[in-house]
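Notebook entry, structure prediction.
Reason for the run: the old model in the group folder had no record of what sequence produced it. Starting over properly, with the input documented here first.
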Amino acid sequence: MEIFSTTLLEWLQRFAIVYSILTVRYVVIAGLAFLIIWTLLSGRLAHRYIQPDRRPGGKNILHEIKYSFITFFVFGLVGIFIFEASRAGWTRIYRDIDQYGWVYFAFTVVATILLHDAYFYWTHRFMHWKKIFKHVHLVHHRSTNPTPWAAFSFHPIEAVIEAGIVPLVVFLYPIHPGALAIFLLYMTFLNVLGHLGYELFPSGFTRKPATSWHNTSTHHNMHHKYFECNYGLYFNWWDRLMKTNHPQYHAQFESRASAQREPATSSPGLAMTDSGPVAASDARAVDVTERRPSNPRVA
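New structure, fully documented this time:
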């Protein structure tokens, strides 16, 4: 079969391309979010900062970046497997849009997002099982107050689980590479948003019927702070159905979304401390990697 005729050099070349794409995507999206929100607009958005009592130091940020690059190694291997499996005719990937039409193309984007939301919720719950958590998922939860760089900060085993959605999709139903690319970009943007550390949505967002189904930065930030709540990724319905929303989620969201901006003298930007770069307005950069707050009851 063609997959077995690929030389080692060809595999390495393709892996290098996939790894580069994953890295560039991460650096551009997470990097721009960090540059704009955490640096250029940190003063103007100070009232929107979700955990104002502490900020992660350089040690935390380096931890997030290091494990993200390890994650991309795993993602790259999965990507090469899918590429070769597609060449061998094992997957249901198709390349002619006319084969199924544009309506089906759009449908697969939406269907994949919905499937991934369910997949993420339940694999996330699994990784919070005590025996799994301390050996695997704890790497991600070292960021109890995450930055955008934490979006892909996973233990290698978790990276395999996270990447599992793509093989599931390409073997389950016909999907065009373009639809898969749109899904992956959407996933990256929403993942970075969840780890943004600042609440950008307007007051009332979590209560209005038209928007309450969508998760917010506050929602996932609280998961990092309290651990045993708010497991969802894109949407809020699994947490509602399983009663795993934090009981103070709406109040916490409103405390940031409705906060008034204080008159600013100048943007604090970032300052260098022993722990690394932090907001200059916060003289104490708190190293949060080892801190785990007590877990609340969820409702």
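Summary: The chain has a mean pLDDT of 89.
The old model has been moved to the deprecated folder.
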